[in-house]
Design goal:
CATH superfamily of the largest domain: Metal-dependent hydrolases
Number of strands: 29
CATH architecture of the largest domain: Alpha-Beta Barrel
Structural class: alpha/beta
Radius of gyration: 25 Å
Low-confidence stretches: 407-411
CATH class of the largest domain: Alpha Beta
Mean pLDDT: 95
Number of helices: 16
């Protein structure tokens, strides 16, 4: 397109150059004044140059009839993990542009845990040259803690280096809030690097309140997405944080809106997606789905638009984005009806990219770096690797158990349901031992194998109320992404493990020796090189297989993927063993007499 010259833009604004695009007779949501009014929007190359009825008199190469429709700025998602969609950045762009998302700021700590800063660079490179504007944070917590073996470590020096890379927009979520509050040296060095570079610092402050919240905000994090109850949200808003709210699969949107409606305007509220699984992306949408649900829950539609456009732009210091106004980048979404939030037309960087839920423009995609393949470095597993031998031949033995809640999906509050299912309990169970074997009853076993080729370690735990039959294996195991296998019998467990390792990563479900479903994830063991239709379809099939196995699932994310996350209370299983998160110590599987 050549160099953009201000003189040409000025000339186009007064009719001396043909407009590139004219959106005619559309209702505009003005994020500055909160008004909605009919107007026309003139675009020259990649910028808005004229807004008003006079724009209709200008010549344009493409005219879009906006009659009966509403124009809003392109949606901006400032907290997400592209890897959770199991798509590469290029294929992610194809998936979300038809939903009106035109800018994202992603935290690549998932691939960072596998490949370190090299993996971050791979994401950056694959995200270049797309109609979707893709930025990344520099991950701050790789690995999440010392209880896991990740494939790499990202050091303070790495963070300082990455902050100088083109496309890095700030520091990723600071999950190690205990390290922040204790003044941990590594964490302080990373935060100091953020302050020196005047970087935006994203937060992760679940359950923090009072003095702890004050200390955390003082350290630099200015936004937080870990929000489940209105009281916590209000405290964070009062502390000056941007509060990032996710959608209805993880919190009670109606209760949140009801509480926020009691506050004077404006609110420091931003909408984000965080982790969105490929089947949900295919079925529900992206940030548009979040917006739609907040409108349905009673939030002012104009405030919803601001929370997905103008405020995230201000938060990230993207001052030429987030609004439809002269001089701003022409990222524009045309909705059929504002209240329904159904996306009709998407313009990104001044070009028509989507229409009627379909891509309207072709764009080249770089193949993902081939060095991301062959990262599952686990020995050939056999049934012997899944045998658990008791200390006696016959009798009864007490064991420590990771206990899951029974039926979170039946709870009325989805936010509470998610918390109740994720916040596992450390309990005890008495098992019968018969002829040198455990009689498992309602328990299953979970194994985590270090799969990065570093230690070769293996962790074991007994688990209650997570699976009833068969086995599931996955290299999507937050955040270190080792190989986790959960099951009720060694034969199915080894079959599931072999199905995954053979593909270089993925998720497999097996029952009675039969492979029910498999999603292949050969890129770092966490991403596919296929498009959303294929990946989303395979994920939906996996969910059906989970139901057949009696595997406790959650619409937001399968719970097996969080079984290994050693920074979430109360107990987890890692490659190093059963880990008591609350007391930061390992626990024996056998209860001492």
């Amino acid at each position: 397109m050549g160099e953009e010259r201000i003189s040409d833009e000025v000339a186009a604004a007064v009719g001396k150059h043909h407009l590139t695009v004219l959106i005619k007779d559309v209702d505009l949501v003005n994020v500055f004044t909160g008004e909605i009014y009919p107007t026309s929007i003139g675009i020259y190359r990649n910028r808005v140059v004229n807004i008003g009825k006079d724009a209709e008199k200008l010549n344009a190469r493409l005219v879009i009839d906006g009659s009966g429709k509403t124009a809003i700025p392109g949606l901006i998602d400032t907290h997400l993990h592209i890897e959770s969609t199991m798509l590469t950045p290029a294929n992610f762009a194809s998936a979300v542009l038809p939903h009106g998302t035109t800018t994202v700021v992603a935290d690549p700590h998932e691939i960072g845990n596998v490949l370190g800063k090299v993996g971050v660079r791979m994401m950056l490179d694959n995200g270049k040259g797309l109609p979707l504007r893709v930025f990344f944070y520099a991950p701050t917590c790789v690995p999440e803690c010392s209880a896991v073996t990740s494939g790499a470590e990202i050091t303070p020096a790495d963070v300082e280096e990455m902050l100088g890379w083109d496309g890095i927009a700030g520091l990723g979520e600071v999950m190690d809030f205990p390290g922040v509050l204790s003044g941990d040296g590594k964490m302080m060095s990373i935060l100091e690097a953020g302050r020196r570079n005047k970087a935006v610092i994203d937060g992760h402050a679940v359950f923090l309140t009072g003095n702890d919240l004050n200390a955390y905000v003082t350290a630099g994090p200015e936004a937080d997405h870990e929000n489940f109850n209105p009281a916590s949200v209000i405290e964070k808003l009062r502390s000056g944080m941007y509060v990032k709210l996710r959608g209805p699969t993880i919190l009670n949107v109606k209760a949140m809106v009801s509480a926020l409606n009691e506050l004077p305007k404006p609110w420091n509220i931003i909408f984000v997606t965080d982790d969105i699984m490929p089947d949900n992306l295919l079925k529900m949408g992206h940030l548009d789905f979040v917006c739609r649900n907040y409108i349905q829950a009673g939030m002012d539609p104009v405030e919803v638009v601001k929370a997905a456009t103008w405020r995230p732009a201000q938060h990230m210091h993207f001052f030429d984005l987030g609004a439809i106004a002269p001089g701003k980048i022409a990222d524009i979404v045309v909705l059929d009806k504002l209240e329904k939030f159904n996306v009709d037309t998407v313009i990104a960087n001044g070009a028509l990219v989507a229409k009627g839920g379909m891509l309207a423009a072709e764009f080249s995609k770089q193949p993902f770096d081939s060095r991301a393949k062959n990262t599952v470095k686990v020995k050939q597993l056999s049934v012997d690797d899944f045998q658990v031998k008791p200390p006696i031949r016959n009798g009864r033995v007490k064991v420590n158990v990771i206990d899951f809640t029974e039926s979170p999906g039946e709870m009325g509050d989805v936010g509470l349901a998610f918390l109740e299912s994720v916040l596992t309990r450390l309990e005890q169970a008495e098992l019968e031992v018969r002829d040198g074997n455990y009689v498992m009853g309602d328990l299953a076993t979970a194994f985590v194998f270090e799969r990065h080729g570093r230690s070769g370690s293996r962790g074991l735990a007994f688990v209650r109320s997570l699976i009833r039959k068969g086995a599931v294996a996955s290299t999507v195991a937050h955040d270190a992404h080792n190989l986790v296998i959960l099951g009720t019998n060694p034969d199915d467990m080894v079959a599931a493990a072999q199905a995954v390792t053979k593909q270089g990563g993925g998720v497999a479900a097996v029952k009675d020796g039969r492979l029910l479903a498999l999603i292949e994830l050969p890129l770092a063991g966490i991403m596919s090189d296929e498009e959303i239709q294929a990946v989303g379809g395979k994920m939906a099939k996996l969910r059906r297989a989970f139901a057949e196995l009696g595997l406790l699932d959650h619409p937001y994310m399968p719970l097996i993927s969080l079984l290994t996350l050693a920074v979430v209370p109360h107990v987890r299983i890692t490659d190093k063993g059963l880990f008591d998160v609350d007391h930061q110590q390992y626990v024996n599987t056998l209860v001492a007499d």
